[in-house]
Design brief:
Helix content is about 60%, strand content about 0%. The chain is mainly alpha-helical and about 100 residues long. It is globular and about 35 Å long.
Length: about 100
């Protein structure tokens, strides 16, 4: 495996470092929620893979509280769509999908 790939892979046991209440079940719920959004916007499968990888990479280095996980998820999806999609959804679309729970800022 190339050195760059090893440096950017998520730590496989990152859930052990989550001390603020984030659990495996919560991660499963977030991924399920992202999958539904992914289907709603008819995005490429690669976009979902990149999103999941971004989430796991972030969680490998940061301890997150459960109330911020959906913000992490939707932000990761936004980044992945900008990278992968020809016509990515707008920030306004993502705010609408979250029932206005988050603001543009």
């Amino acid at each position: 495996m190339q050195i760059e790939q090893q440096l950017t892979m998520p730590y496989p046991f990152y859930m052990k470092n989550q001390t603020r209440g984030f659990t495996e079940n919560m991660r499963a719920e977030v991924v399920n929620w992202l999958f539904r959004i992914h289907l709603k916007f008819r995005l490429w499968p690669e976009t979902l893979y990149i999103t999941s990888n971004l989430i796991d990479r972030y969680l490998s280095i940061c301890d997150i509280s459960p109330d911020r996980v959906y913000l992490l998820a939707i932000t990761s999806l936004l980044i992945a769509t900008k990278y992968e999609e020809i016509y990515p959804p707008t920030v306004k679309d993502f705010i609408k999908v979250t029932n206005n729970k988050f603001t543009r800022e």
